[in-house]
Amino acid sequence: MAKSLVLAGVIALAAALPAAADLVTVQSQKPVAETMDALQAAVEGAGATVFARVDHAAGAQTAGMELPGSQLLIFGNPKLGTPAMQADMRAGLYLPLKVLAYEDADGQVWLTYQDPAEMLSGLDIPADAEFIAKMQGALGKLTSKAAE
């Protein structure tokens, strides 16, 4: 009986946590701030709107705590986001798109974002919706460009 409860707990916890496969990670050759500057320039150059840039490390400092370099860029393009929300308004919980640039314990900088197909998979949106492929393509191109 105890084993069944432990197993049920492990299964429930695993189901509640996002799988690592849901995240796409790109290695950057630059420090966090430069990587994020490059990402922001690429996003703006592509005609998308940057809504916010959050510096998590700076926020930690204001609380008297420390984090390695970590910044989040929140951005979107109504041409991609609106069709997702037309298909299911709850897509607005996941939009605009977000990309995190962070430094790991070894000093390596990474760009990470959630795959839009996985992000929107629990909604009433067809897996083959054209806007999902466009979001995936845009995120891939933008992060690759920023990481160079």
From TrEMBL:
Amino-acid biosynthesis as UniProt keyword: no
The species this protein belongs to is Leisingera aquaemixtae
Looking up PANTHER family in the UniProt record yields:
INNER MEMBRANE OR EXPORTED (PTHR38342:SF2), SLR5037 PROTEIN (PTHR38342)
Domain of life assignment: Bacteria
The name on file for this protein is DUF302 domain-containing protein
Q: Which residues form the DUF302 domain?
A: 54-116
Report any Pfam family annotated for this entry. Answer: DUF302
Does the keyword section mention Signal?
yes
**Would you indicate the residue range of the signal peptide?**
1-21
Q: Which UniProt keywords apply?
A: Signal
